[in-house]
Write a structure and sequence with these properties.
This protein is α+β, with helices and mostly antiparallel strands and about 650 residues long. About 35% of the residues lie in helices and about 25% in strands. The protein contains 20 helices and 35 strands. The strands form 9 sheets. The protein has an 8-stranded mixed beta sheet with strand order 18-22-23-30-27-26-24-25. Strands 2-1-7-4-5 form a 5-stranded mixed beta sheet. A hairpin with a 5-residue loop joins strand 28 and strand 29.
Length: about 650
């Protein structure tokens, strides 16, 4: 017999080998009808799995959030079966669940296109309606290779060879179709439901290696019900309209080109937004007690070796030989023993060099450094994505050197700063994750125990709720990740706070304690926005290009109806500029409706129109972006209202 514990605290005794299906059937037929899987000691499992030892179980119903991953996983299997029914010569490779959906990679002589989706989705619906039961079998390794080889599934044979010998080789069947899979699955294909949609197709190299064959990757999404699917598809449609790359071109903000992969060419309007954001965050961090510094772009590899970044990040760094050569040299020869330099991928080792200048006392701590540090990372070309993933970036970076007894107060101060900034920028929903030690890391387990406890305790002391992200920490310490939600419900990870005992040790940072002893400071790595490039991209998409008045590149356009009023319009322009507003004029010989329409497409927040009557009365007709109609007010009233609206939030 085995003892089974339930979420309500009850413990019941069952015969060893009893399945979850049998147990839920014995409890309630209505519960059994809604249940699609179970958790055994917190781990998702097939409902048909036998219970062979004492355990705690929890039933997963189809409308539970936990079931969403299973729905998507099973939908990927249905997709693979549908493709092979329609095109039997296709090989299936891997099909994981990803954020908001799933994908499956297929090997086929003719790549799939979106024109194939209608037929595939129709076949998927038929497979779901059949309701074939998912069954799990454990196969002999060599027999499995023989079966898949006989089917021409060469990729599956390769996957089997990659599975460690001490792991069971699991095969999941749904009717006659089967696949290699770790599981778990729901009860049958019918549990997938009808709320699914194929979304796009792309090329993908087998195992991500460009030396391997290009496969067809079909992406899809699946949800608990059609209402959720409809909401998600609407969000995707909105996201396409808001794509910062598209808007960046339409609004003349920036561009990227092949000759500078991953680096941004800021145009005047875009750089205006950049400068406004940099000035804003500079004022915020200065007010929070940070001292701004500037450190070198290019530093000797010896420093990166000492910090540990050379072994961890070298492939992601731009390495430059330190050479002297004659001006008449025909070519650049790099000797094997040449000294190496590297463009900095992050600022932290340089900030420790500033800290190490001169003797520091415990009275000097906390010492807060800030830098708008330009960093370079050798991101793969295929990973680059507009402003969101670049090679050259400017971080609103900062490092706090403090004592251990100051960790809590500094964490609270940083959280307060971050809250203030995000509220100013219109982001009210923020989720916090505590990312713990990764597999590849610096420092001892004891150091990590201390760091994880210190950061967790500090966050708890602030009263904020958070979740654990296992294994997602930085290589030198755990970190807090701050994920904000935008106007259409997407989540963006921006702010970070990392607790580090390792780098101060490696780079010999120290201070004189109250008892005269030499102690290591604790180092807090922190960023509020992350990088200016990425955050501006987020803002563009969040506002669909309609930036708030204080960030708008052009805040006001003064347009005339007839040329006779141009002198009066120029006086209005001068008053607006004197009030600090960014103003453009439109005195062209065009109809006013044409002018208004053109500037509206450029997302200008306010258009002031002057005709003969306005010029005589000292008024302007104010047209606001997104609003119908217009309002006639005095020039003084318009200037005062616009100037107040254009004031950055921290200066109001």
């Amino acid at each position: 017999m085995v003892n089974v514990s339930f979420p309500d605290g009850a413990v019941r005794e069952y015969t060893r080998g009893t399945t979850g299906t049998t147990i839920v059937d014995s409890i309630s037929k209505s519960l059994a009808k809604k249940t699609v899987a179970m958790r055994i000691n917190g781990e998702l499992a097939d409902l048909s799995d036998p219970l062979n030892e004492d355990c705690a179980i929890e039933f997963v119903q189809r409308d539970d959030e936990a079931a969403l991953e299973l729905i998507r996983h099973d939908c990927a299997h249905v997709l693979a079966e549908a493709v092979q029914e329609l095109w039997p010569d296709t090989q299936v490779t891997i099909g994981p669940v990803i954020e908001n959906g799933f994908y499956y990679d297929f090997a086929r002589d003719q790549h799939f296109t979106e024109q194939d989706f209608e037929a595939i989705e129709k076949k998927m619906a038929q497979i779901i309606e059949r309701g074939a039961v998912f069954t799990k079998e454990v196969w002999d390794r060599e027999e499995a290779k023989r079966v898949f080889a006989a089917k021409g599934e060469d990729y599956k044979v390769e996957l089997i060879d990659a599975i460690p010998g001490d792991e069971d080789l699991k095969i999941y069947k749904q009717g006659q179709w089967f696949d290699l899979c770790r599981g778990p699955h729901m009860r049958s294909t019918k549990d997938v439901g009808v709320a699914f949609k194929l979304t796009k197709v792309a090329g993908a190299y087998w195992r991500g290696d460009s030396n391997n064959k290009m496969l067809s990757r079909i992406y899809g999404t699946a949800w608990v019900n059609p209402k959720q699917l409809k909401a998600y598809l609407h969000m995707i449609e909105e996201a396409e309209k808001r794509d910062h790359r598209k808007l960046g071109k339409e609004l003349d903000l920036f561009h990227l080109q092949e000759e500078a992969q991953g680096s941004v060419f800021w145009h005047p309007k875009g750089f205006n937004i950049y400068n406004q954001m940099e000035s804003y965050i500079r004022r915020k961090v200065n007010a929070a007690g940070y001292k701004e510094i500037k450190t070198p772009q290019l530093m000797d590899s010896k420093l990166w070796e000492k910090s540990g970044h050379w072994s961890k990040f070298r492939e992601d760094m731009f390495v430059v030989p330190d050479l002297e050569f004659a001006s008449d040299a025909e070519q650049l020869d790099v000797a094997p023993d040449s000294k190496l330099m590297a463009l900095k991928p992050m600022n932290c080792p340089a900030h420790i060099q500033v800290f190490n200048q001169g003797i520091k006392s415990y009275r000097d701590l906390p010492l807060r450094f800030a830098e708008f540090g330009c960093c370079h990372r050798n991101e793969a070309h295929g990973a680059l994505h507009g402003l969101m993933r670049v090679r050259q970036m400017t971080q609103d970076d900062g490092h706090v050197f403090c004592r251990e007894d100051q960790i809590t107060s500094e964490t609270e101060a940083f959280c307060a700063l971050l809250d203030s900034v995000y509220q100013d920028l219109g982001f009210t929903e923020v989720k916090i994750l505590l990312a713990t030690r990764p597999d590849m890391r610096a420092g001892s387990d004891e150091t990590w125990d201390q760091a994880e406890k210190g950061l967790g305790d500090a966050l708890r002391a602030t009263g904020r709720e958070f979740e654990i992200a296992e294994g997602e920490g930085a290589f030198y310490g755990p970190k807090l990740e701050f994920h904000l939600k935008d106007a259409i419900g997407r989540s963006w990870q921006c702010g970070t706070l990392q607790l580090d005992f390792v780098l101060p040790e490696r780079l010999d940072a120290s201070y004189i304690a109250e008892d005269g002893s030499r102690q290591r400071p604790v180092m807090l790595h922190r960023a509020v926005l992350g990088t200016l490039e990425r955050f501006i991209g987020i803002l563009i998409e969040n506002h669909a290009g309609r930036m708030p008045m204080w960030l708008a590149p052009t805040q006001v356009v003064v347009a005339t109806i007839i040329s006779d009023v141009d002198p009066a319009a120029m006086k209005v322009v001068e008053k607006l500029k004197a009030a600090g507003l960014r103003v453009e004029t439109d005195f062209r010989n065009e109809k006013i409706n044409y002018k208004v329409r053109e500037h509206s497409t450029q997302k200008v927040p306010a258009i002031l129109v002057l005709g003969e009557r306005e010029a005589e009365e000292g008024t302007v007709s104010v047209r606001r972006l997104g609003e119908k109609g217009q309002k006639v007010v005095s020039v003084e009233e318009a200037v005062a209202a616009l100037a107040a609206e254009a004031t950055p939030p921290d200066l109001k």
